[in-house]
Amino acid sequence: MAVHTTRMLLLGAVAMFEPVNGYQIRRELVSWRVDEWANLGPGSIYSGLTTLEKLGQVVRHDVSDDGRPVAVYEITAAGRDELARLLGAGLETVTLFNAVAFHAAFGMLPLISRDAAVRHLEVRIQEIDRSLAEWDPGEGEAAPPHAVHGVRHWLALLREEREWLGATVGRLRAGDFDLAGEPWRWVPPADDPGREMAADRERYLGLLGR
Whole-prediction pTM value? Predict the structure, then answer.
């Protein structure tokens, strides 16, 4: 997986749950099954956080939680700028054979405003239209017939995605989903780890004197 997608996932997880410890980030991302579709393993999560700290995109606080040392992370202004850039690129960029960055970015849609979400997805629709015209092999292509047929399979998937995107933009315009700056209407189940993370966040804020 490209480094920028790893960075987007880590910055997004920190932004969603900050202040948050490394184990919680790992547990959350594993629950997204990123090891399967994004090839992001637990070791990469911890090393990635260290890299983001060196880049000044997250800040690490070492606190004592009931006598136990814990490192918790928060995103910086530079990190938010980078995350916004990565989310925009992930939502807008169309590649024929790999949509991992898009799936990662769409999974963190609540981090951006409704207007921004609509704008990015409308750009993606335009990029799909351009790609369909550019990549259509047509008749008489100088390639083996089975290869041309394989490309047409990918193009068929793009056409299905375009239809899905159109419906998604319609839902966004109608007020569906919970996005940045809006009340959070979705209520997680009682056993959702997010409830525990919310309690931990409040405790960490207290330990940080907030």
Answer: 0.89
In single-letter form, the type of residue at position 144 comes to P
d(CA 38, CA 58): 22
- 8 A C-beta contact, residue 60 and residue 18: no
CB 179 within 8 A of CB 114: yes
Q: Please give the structure tokens belonging to residue 172.
A: 């966004």
Q: Evaluate if residue 1 carries a pLDDT over 70.
A: no
Could you tell me if 179 and 120 are in contact, meaning their C-beta atoms sit under 8 angstroms apart?
A: no
**Residue (of 101, 87, 86) closest to 40 by Cα position:** 101
Q: Which DSSP string corresponds to 129-150?
A: HHHHHHH---TT-SS-HHHHHH
Burial class (CB in 10 A: 0-12, 13-18, 19+), 106: middle
End-to-end CA separation in angstroms for the chain: 37
